[in-house]
Prior knowledge:
The structure is a single chain. This protein is mainly alpha-helical. It has one domain. Helices cover 68% and strands 0% of the residues. The chain has 6 helices and no strands.
Amino acid sequence: MTTITSPSIQTRPATRAQARTIAYWACTLLLVFVLSGGAYGELTRQYGTLETHTILGFPTYLLPLLATWKLLGSAAILVPGFPRLKEWAYAGMFFNMTGAFISHLIEKDYGSAGMHLTVTAGVTGLVLASWALRPESRTLPRQGAAQRITA
Length: 151
């Protein structure tokens, strides 16, 4: 039995830049999905979300505010341009998730099998990975030492 292969169809391995781009978008889209899901739960006052905020001692009027920030931050990291806004969005996501982690830890609200700590730490990892893997076009321009001194 003979196999027919075409020399014109060649697959080449992904370059390092392509792999980084794929990793960036995978982390970023997963992060946006998780934050949007959390925002939905907060906006619709889902039982688990409402219960968690109550256990942690947070007022329920914060739910729509947190949801709005999550949705705006998600939009900010997805749209092209606005690198400074992206930096603020990533910072807000990091503070939100690390604050949630610490709040659960202090209140000893670990959830089943430490789920609350695992999930918040995992989302924090996604925030950091998405931020670190950003393409150059989505970062703030780097300034030289001379520009910083005169600015």
